[in-house]
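Practice problem: predict the structure.
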Amino acid sequence: MNDADSTPESPQPRRSDATRATILAAARERFAADGYERATIRAIARDANIDPSMVMRYYGNKEGLFAAAVDIDLRLPVPDKVPKADVGRIFVEHFMDLWERNEVLTALLRVGVTNAAGAERMQGIFKEQLLPVALRVCPDPEQAPARAALVASQMLGMALTRFVLRFPPTVALHREEIVAWLAPTVQRYVTAPHPGPLD
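Answer:
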């Protein structure tokens, strides 16, 4: 009886999870390709080969779907376990891994530069994930927000020109070259003494 009771119910969560995963994968690709404004529930449903009502059922509307599609943990390195002299290199290598393997970040960047919801989500990731790491690494915690913002400017600039705008010289750079160029700059932003006021 227990087997009979559990059999009909057990496949349902698996089907539900698979459907959600299919919808989110299609949404990320569509948001990355079209941006937030042009992406539609109908187009995402077509890409996922399901009825648009299923998208609405799981996520309510485009805003809810976007929020779920760009929910991301950067999994930043733990500062206490990273030698301070290697922070720049480790950060750049980590972000390159993220951009190269995760289409969610590309979708979020595309949307973030054109849409208030996307920009707000990126600001939230900065505040919730990057800033706390900077606070634990920087020599002057009161300057951590500015230092974290400078790090973000380097990594987002590289991502924008390499993965979104696809500037040929940037795309042509080998990963090792990018790390070699950017790591010293990120290291300086995070650990160097503050330059002080300029006269």
